[in-house]
Amino acid sequence: MTTIPARLATLAQRSSSPQESRKRVVRLYREWYRSAPEICAIYALPVSPDYVRHAIRQRFEQNRHVLDQRVIDTLLLKGLQEYQETMNSWKQYDHVMGILLTDINKPQKTFLQKFYEGKDEQAVIPAATGV
Amino acid sequence: MSGTSMMTVSPPGMSLRTLLRRSGAQAIPRFTRNLSSESSSVEKKTERAEITVPPVREVTEADVISGAPKELRYRSVRIYQPTRNTMQSGAGKSERWRIDWDTLPGAGRWENPLMGYASSADYMQGTRISFRSKEDAIHFAEKQGWDYYVQQSEPKRIPPKNYAENYVYKPHKLRIARTK
Protein backbone atom coordinates (compact mmCIF):
# COMPACT_ATOMS: atom_id res chain seq x y z
CA MET A 1 0.00 0.00 0.00
CA THR A 2 1.46 3.32 -1.01
CA THR A 3 0.92 6.40 1.06
CA ILE A 4 1.39 10.04 0.31
CA PRO A 5 3.86 11.37 2.91
CA ALA A 6 2.14 14.72 3.20
CA ARG A 7 -1.28 13.24 3.84
CA LEU A 8 -2.71 14.44 7.18
CA ALA A 9 0.49 16.36 7.87
CA THR A 10 0.02 19.43 10.05
CA LEU A 11 2.20 22.30 11.07
CA ALA A 12 3.02 22.88 14.71
CA GLN A 13 0.68 25.57 15.98
CA ARG A 14 0.55 27.74 19.05
CA SER A 15 -2.88 28.24 20.50
CA SER A 16 -3.66 31.82 21.35
CA SER A 17 -6.08 31.07 24.18
CA PRO A 18 -7.37 28.19 26.32
CA GLN A 19 -10.59 28.32 24.30
CA GLU A 20 -8.75 27.79 21.07
CA SER A 21 -6.67 24.93 22.42
CA ARG A 22 -9.83 23.29 23.74
CA LYS A 23 -11.38 23.58 20.32
CA ARG A 24 -8.33 22.00 18.76
CA VAL A 25 -8.35 19.14 21.29
CA VAL A 26 -12.01 18.44 20.59
CA ARG A 27 -11.33 18.51 16.85
CA LEU A 28 -8.51 16.01 17.24
CA TYR A 29 -10.71 13.80 19.41
CA ARG A 30 -13.44 13.86 16.77
CA GLU A 31 -10.99 12.79 14.11
CA TRP A 32 -9.87 9.84 16.21
CA TYR A 33 -13.45 9.00 17.10
CA ARG A 34 -14.62 8.97 13.51
CA SER A 35 -11.72 6.94 12.19
CA ALA A 36 -12.08 4.11 14.71
CA PRO A 37 -13.76 1.73 12.19
CA GLU A 38 -11.11 2.55 9.61
CA ILE A 39 -8.31 1.79 12.09
CA CYS A 40 -9.89 -1.59 12.78
CA ALA A 41 -10.11 -2.26 9.06
CA ILE A 42 -6.58 -1.12 8.13
CA TYR A 43 -4.81 -3.19 10.77
CA ALA A 44 -7.36 -6.05 10.91
CA LEU A 45 -7.72 -5.66 14.65
CA PRO A 46 -9.56 -8.26 16.71
CA VAL A 47 -11.33 -5.50 18.68
CA SER A 48 -14.43 -3.48 18.00
CA PRO A 49 -14.39 0.19 17.01
CA ASP A 50 -16.01 0.91 20.36
CA TYR A 51 -12.98 -0.45 22.14
CA VAL A 52 -10.69 1.71 19.98
CA ARG A 53 -12.75 4.74 20.93
CA HIS A 54 -12.60 3.76 24.57
CA ALA A 55 -8.80 3.44 24.45
CA ILE A 56 -8.45 6.77 22.66
CA ARG A 57 -10.73 8.39 25.21
CA GLN A 58 -8.52 7.06 27.99
CA ARG A 59 -5.53 8.79 26.42
CA PHE A 60 -7.37 12.07 26.27
CA GLU A 61 -8.67 11.74 29.83
CA GLN A 62 -5.17 11.01 31.11
CA ASN A 63 -4.05 14.52 30.21
CA ARG A 64 -7.19 16.30 31.34
CA HIS A 65 -5.40 17.97 34.25
CA VAL A 66 -2.87 19.74 32.03
CA LEU A 67 -3.30 23.51 32.08
CA ASP A 68 -0.03 24.79 30.70
CA GLN A 69 -0.61 26.20 27.21
CA ARG A 70 2.76 25.09 25.86
CA VAL A 71 2.28 21.57 27.16
CA ILE A 72 -1.19 21.35 25.62
CA ASP A 73 0.21 22.50 22.28
CA THR A 74 2.93 19.87 22.44
CA LEU A 75 0.44 17.16 23.36
CA LEU A 76 -1.75 18.25 20.46
CA LEU A 77 1.15 18.02 18.07
CA LYS A 78 2.03 14.57 19.36
CA GLY A 79 -1.58 13.47 19.02
CA LEU A 80 -1.75 14.74 15.44
CA GLN A 81 1.47 12.96 14.56
CA GLU A 82 0.16 9.77 16.10
CA TYR A 83 -3.05 10.13 14.14
CA GLN A 84 -1.16 10.67 10.90
CA GLU A 85 1.06 7.68 11.51
CA THR A 86 -1.90 5.48 12.34
CA MET A 87 -4.05 6.49 9.41
CA ASN A 88 -1.25 6.31 6.86
CA SER A 89 -0.46 2.72 7.86
CA TRP A 90 3.00 3.70 9.02
CA LYS A 91 2.57 1.42 12.02
CA GLN A 92 2.68 -2.29 12.52
CA TYR A 93 -0.04 -4.32 14.15
CA ASP A 94 1.84 -4.39 17.46
CA HIS A 95 2.28 -0.63 17.53
CA VAL A 96 -1.47 -0.31 17.46
CA MET A 97 -2.51 -3.18 19.70
CA GLY A 98 0.45 -3.08 22.06
CA ILE A 99 0.97 0.65 22.49
CA LEU A 100 -1.96 2.64 21.21
CA LEU A 101 -4.75 0.42 22.47
CA THR A 102 -3.36 -1.13 25.65
CA ASP A 103 -5.16 -0.44 28.87
CA ILE A 104 -3.23 2.31 30.63
CA ASN A 105 -5.02 1.79 33.92
CA LYS A 106 -3.30 -1.40 34.97
CA PRO A 107 -4.78 -3.07 38.05
CA GLN A 108 -2.86 -2.41 41.24
CA LYS A 109 -0.84 -5.37 42.47
CA THR A 110 -1.81 -6.76 45.81
CA PHE A 111 0.56 -6.86 48.74
CA LEU A 112 1.16 -10.60 48.39
CA GLN A 113 1.84 -10.36 44.65
CA LYS A 114 4.48 -7.72 45.31
CA PHE A 115 5.89 -9.78 48.18
CA TYR A 116 6.30 -12.90 46.06
CA GLU A 117 8.12 -10.90 43.42
CA GLY A 118 10.34 -9.40 46.08
CA LYS A 119 9.51 -5.89 44.97
CA ASP A 120 7.26 -4.04 47.33
CA GLU A 121 7.96 -0.51 46.26
CA GLN A 122 6.28 1.55 43.60
CA ALA A 123 9.60 2.72 42.21
CA VAL A 124 10.78 -0.79 41.52
CA ILE A 125 8.95 -1.96 38.44
CA PRO A 126 11.78 -3.05 36.19
CA ALA A 127 11.48 -3.55 32.46
CA ALA A 128 12.92 -7.05 32.60
CA THR A 129 12.09 -9.74 35.12
CA GLY A 130 15.53 -11.21 35.53
CA VAL A 131 16.43 -14.89 35.61
CA MET B 1 -20.39 16.31 18.72
CA SER B 2 -23.63 15.51 20.46
CA GLY B 3 -23.87 14.86 24.19
CA THR B 4 -25.14 11.33 23.86
CA SER B 5 -22.28 10.15 21.71
CA MET B 6 -19.83 11.38 24.31
CA MET B 7 -21.73 9.64 27.08
CA THR B 8 -21.42 6.26 25.40
CA VAL B 9 -17.65 6.33 25.17
CA SER B 10 -16.97 7.71 28.62
CA PRO B 11 -15.38 5.22 31.03
CA PRO B 12 -17.61 3.98 33.85
CA GLY B 13 -15.51 5.51 36.62
CA MET B 14 -16.19 9.04 35.46
CA SER B 15 -17.99 11.32 37.85
CA LEU B 16 -21.44 12.69 37.17
CA ARG B 17 -20.12 16.18 37.33
CA THR B 18 -17.65 15.77 34.49
CA LEU B 19 -20.30 14.04 32.43
CA LEU B 20 -22.66 16.92 32.97
CA ARG B 21 -20.02 19.45 32.11
CA ARG B 22 -19.39 17.64 28.86
CA SER B 23 -22.94 16.83 27.92
CA GLY B 24 -24.03 20.39 27.36
CA ALA B 25 -23.97 23.90 28.69
CA GLN B 26 -27.54 23.82 30.00
CA ALA B 27 -26.98 21.05 32.50
CA ILE B 28 -24.37 22.92 34.49
CA PRO B 29 -26.37 25.75 36.07
CA ARG B 30 -29.06 23.32 37.19
CA PHE B 31 -26.48 21.14 38.81
CA THR B 32 -24.70 23.93 40.62
CA ARG B 33 -27.97 25.31 41.90
CA ASN B 34 -28.76 21.99 43.53
CA LEU B 35 -25.31 21.58 44.94
CA SER B 36 -24.54 24.98 46.41
CA SER B 37 -27.65 26.96 47.20
CA GLU B 38 -25.97 29.64 49.29
CA SER B 39 -23.04 30.47 47.04
CA SER B 40 -22.81 34.02 45.80
CA SER B 41 -23.29 35.05 42.19
CA VAL B 42 -19.55 35.52 41.73
CA GLU B 43 -18.84 31.95 42.73
CA LYS B 44 -21.56 30.69 40.43
CA LYS B 45 -20.02 32.61 37.59
CA THR B 46 -16.61 31.02 38.09
CA GLU B 47 -18.09 27.56 38.39
CA ARG B 48 -20.08 28.01 35.23
CA ALA B 49 -16.97 28.85 33.26
CA GLU B 50 -16.14 25.95 31.02
CA ILE B 51 -12.39 26.36 31.11
CA THR B 52 -10.50 27.17 34.26
CA VAL B 53 -7.95 29.93 33.97
CA PRO B 54 -4.52 28.34 34.34
CA PRO B 55 -2.33 29.70 37.11
CA VAL B 56 0.92 31.26 35.99
CA ARG B 57 3.69 28.79 36.61
CA GLU B 58 7.38 29.44 36.45
CA VAL B 59 8.31 25.90 35.48
CA THR B 60 6.79 24.03 32.58
CA GLU B 61 5.52 20.60 33.53
CA ALA B 62 7.51 18.49 31.13
CA ASP B 63 6.85 15.07 32.61
CA VAL B 64 3.55 14.84 30.72
CA ILE B 65 5.23 15.16 27.34
CA SER B 66 8.65 13.73 28.06
CA GLY B 67 7.50 10.14 27.66
CA ALA B 68 9.47 9.02 30.72
CA PRO B 69 8.08 6.05 32.62
CA LYS B 70 5.69 6.79 35.45
CA GLU B 71 7.87 4.95 37.96
CA LEU B 72 10.43 7.74 37.89
CA ARG B 73 8.07 9.90 39.93
CA TYR B 74 8.53 7.59 42.91
CA ARG B 75 12.29 8.00 42.95
CA SER B 76 14.30 10.92 44.16
CA VAL B 77 17.37 12.25 42.42
CA ARG B 78 20.57 13.56 43.92
CA ILE B 79 22.00 16.89 42.83
CA TYR B 80 25.68 17.11 43.65
CA GLN B 81 29.05 18.36 42.57
CA PRO B 82 31.44 15.56 41.61
CA THR B 83 34.76 15.36 43.41
CA ARG B 84 38.11 15.73 41.73
CA ASN B 85 39.46 12.67 39.99
CA THR B 86 42.04 11.31 42.41
CA MET B 87 44.02 9.70 39.62
CA GLN B 88 44.80 13.08 38.11
CA SER B 89 46.18 16.26 39.62
CA GLY B 90 43.90 18.58 37.69
CA ALA B 91 40.51 19.58 39.02
CA GLY B 92 38.73 19.47 35.69
CA LYS B 93 35.05 18.62 35.47
CA SER B 94 34.52 19.17 39.17
CA GLU B 95 32.83 22.55 38.72
CA ARG B 96 29.75 21.07 37.11
CA TRP B 97 26.64 19.89 38.92
CA ARG B 98 25.22 16.49 38.33
CA ILE B 99 21.93 14.69 38.68
CA ASP B 100 21.98 10.99 39.27
CA TRP B 101 19.70 8.29 40.60
CA ASP B 102 20.30 6.24 43.68
CA THR B 103 20.45 2.50 43.33
CA LEU B 104 17.16 0.78 43.89
CA PRO B 105 16.93 -0.76 47.35
CA GLY B 106 17.43 -4.50 46.96
CA ALA B 107 15.56 -4.96 43.72
CA GLY B 108 16.04 -5.00 40.01
CA ARG B 109 19.41 -6.74 40.30
CA TRP B 110 20.42 -10.31 39.80
CA GLU B 111 23.47 -12.39 39.14
CA ASN B 112 23.91 -14.68 36.20
CA PRO B 113 23.93 -18.24 37.62
CA LEU B 114 26.47 -19.52 35.08
CA MET B 115 29.00 -16.76 34.70
CA GLY B 116 28.18 -14.56 37.64
CA TYR B 117 27.67 -11.43 35.60
CA ALA B 118 25.92 -8.74 37.54
CA SER B 119 22.75 -7.60 35.82
CA SER B 120 20.24 -4.94 36.59
CA ALA B 121 16.81 -3.96 35.40
CA ASP B 122 17.25 -0.44 36.68
CA TYR B 123 17.33 1.64 33.52
CA MET B 124 18.53 4.73 35.35
CA GLN B 125 21.59 3.28 37.02
CA GLY B 126 24.05 4.39 34.36
CA THR B 127 22.42 7.74 33.70
CA ARG B 128 23.79 11.03 34.92
CA ILE B 129 23.12 14.51 33.67
CA SER B 130 25.53 17.41 33.96
CA PHE B 131 24.62 21.06 34.41
CA ARG B 132 26.56 24.30 34.58
CA SER B 133 25.07 25.37 37.89
CA LYS B 134 23.08 24.07 40.80
CA GLU B 135 20.12 26.26 39.84
CA ASP B 136 20.01 24.72 36.37
CA ALA B 137 19.94 21.24 37.88
CA ILE B 138 17.17 22.16 40.34
CA HIS B 139 15.15 23.77 37.56
CA PHE B 140 15.46 20.66 35.43
CA ALA B 141 14.41 18.37 38.28
CA GLU B 142 11.41 20.56 39.04
CA LYS B 143 10.45 20.66 35.38
CA GLN B 144 10.46 16.88 35.19
CA GLY B 145 8.53 16.59 38.45
CA TRP B 146 11.27 14.66 40.22
CA ASP B 147 11.90 14.79 43.93
CA TYR B 148 15.42 15.95 44.51
CA TYR B 149 17.87 16.66 47.26
CA VAL B 150 20.95 18.79 47.00
CA GLN B 151 24.13 17.37 48.41
CA GLN B 152 26.29 20.25 49.58
CA SER B 153 29.82 20.12 48.25
CA GLU B 154 32.79 20.23 50.56
CA PRO B 155 34.73 23.51 50.43
CA LYS B 156 38.03 22.95 48.66
CA ARG B 157 41.09 23.39 50.88
CA ILE B 158 44.50 23.75 49.37
CA PRO B 159 47.13 23.17 52.12
CA PRO B 160 49.90 25.78 52.15
CA LYS B 161 53.18 24.43 50.90
CA ASN B 162 56.56 26.02 50.38
CA TYR B 163 60.00 24.81 49.62
CA ALA B 164 61.62 26.27 52.69
CA GLU B 165 59.46 24.17 54.97
CA ASN B 166 61.54 21.17 53.98
CA TYR B 167 64.52 22.63 55.85
CA VAL B 168 62.86 24.03 58.95
CA TYR B 169 64.32 22.57 62.11
CA LYS B 170 61.74 20.62 64.11
CA PRO B 171 63.04 18.91 67.25
CA HIS B 172 62.31 15.24 68.00
CA LYS B 173 60.99 14.58 64.57
CA LEU B 174 62.27 12.72 61.59
CA ARG B 175 62.84 15.01 58.68
CA ILE B 176 60.58 14.34 55.73
CA ALA B 177 61.27 15.92 52.38
CA ARG B 178 57.97 17.05 51.04
CA THR B 179 58.23 17.07 47.34
CA LYS B 180 54.58 17.48 46.56
Q: How would you portray this structure in words?
A:
The complex is a heterodimer of chains A (131) and B (180). In chain A, 14% of the residues are buried. Chain A is built from 6 helices and no strands. Residues 127-131 of chain A have low confidence and may be disordered. Chain A is globular. The termini of chain A are far apart. With 131 residues, chain A is mostly helical. By secondary structure, chain B is α+β, with helices and mostly antiparallel strands. Chain B has 5 helices and 6 strands, in the order ααααβββββαβ. Chain B has helices spanning 3-9, 16-23, 27-35, 41-48, 134-144; strands at 76-80, 97-101, 109-111, 118-120, 128-131, 147-150. In chain B, the strands form 2 sheets. In chain B, strands 5-2-1-6 form a 4-stranded mixed beta sheet, with helices on one face. In chain B, strands 3-4 form a two-stranded antiparallel ribbon. Mean pLDDT of chain B is 72; it is low at 1-41. The A-B interface holds A 18-19, 22, 26, 29-30, 33, 50, 53-54, 57-58, 61, 63, 66-71, 74-75, 78, 118-119, 121-131 and B 1, 5, 8-11, 14, 50-55, 57, 60-62, 64-65, 71, 74-75, 104-108, 110, 112-113, 119, 121-123. Chain A: Belongs to the complex I LYR family. Chain A: Residues 23-82 form the Complex 1 LYR protein domain. Chain A: Pfam families: Complex1_LYR (PF05347). Chain A: This is NdufA6 NADH-ubiquinone oxidoreductase 14.8 kDa subunit.
